[in-house]
């Protein structure tokens, strides 16, 4: 079910995630609910731990999350890859930004 303002529901996202990891395209609703609860619990716990680490400095940062997953190399590598891709996209967007003032002076 798609909500126009927020996109697919969390259950639909979990169902897609499960399918992406090799599960049936239409898993049992109980299975989706269980996996959703596990994911929510994991993310909540991770966020609370990161907040505890960040509170010592006064703010939460990406490095707090990276610190928490430092011993889980597949997760750490994936996060580093995604952060690198995010930076590349930011640089690409910046390269295509049009400076209106410069265009006005050229005309």
UniProtKB/TrEMBL annotation:
Taxonomy of the source species: Eukaryota, Viridiplantae, Streptophyta, Embryophyta, Tracheophyta
Superkingdom of origin organism: Eukaryota
Gene3D superfamilies, sorted: Histone, subunit A (1.10.20.10)
GO annotation, biological process: transcription by RNA polymerase II
Similarity comment: Belongs to the TAF13 family.
InterPro entries for the chain: Histone-fold, TFIID_TAF13
Main location: nucleus
Pfam families: TFIID-18kDa
Organism: Gossypium barbadense (Sea Island cotton)
Keyword terms of this UniProt record: Nucleus, Transcription, Transcription regulation
Gene Ontology CC: one annotated term: nucleus
Cellular compartment(s): Nucleus
The protein, known as: Transcription initiation factor TFIID subunit 13
């Amino acid at each position: 079910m798609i909500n126009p303002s927020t996109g697919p529901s969390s259950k639909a996202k979990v169902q897609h995630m499960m399918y992406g990891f090799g599960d049936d395209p239409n898993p049992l609703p109980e299975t989706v609910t269980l996996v959703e609860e596990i994911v929510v619990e994991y993310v909540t716990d991770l966020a609370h731990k990161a907040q505890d680490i960040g509170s010592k400095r006064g703010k939460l940062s990406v490095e707090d999350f990276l610190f928490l997953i430092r011993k889980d190399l597949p997760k750490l590598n994936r996060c580093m890859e995604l952060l690198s891709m995010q930076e590349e996209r930011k640089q690409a967007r910046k390269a295509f930004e049009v400076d209106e003032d410069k265009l006005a002076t050229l005309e």
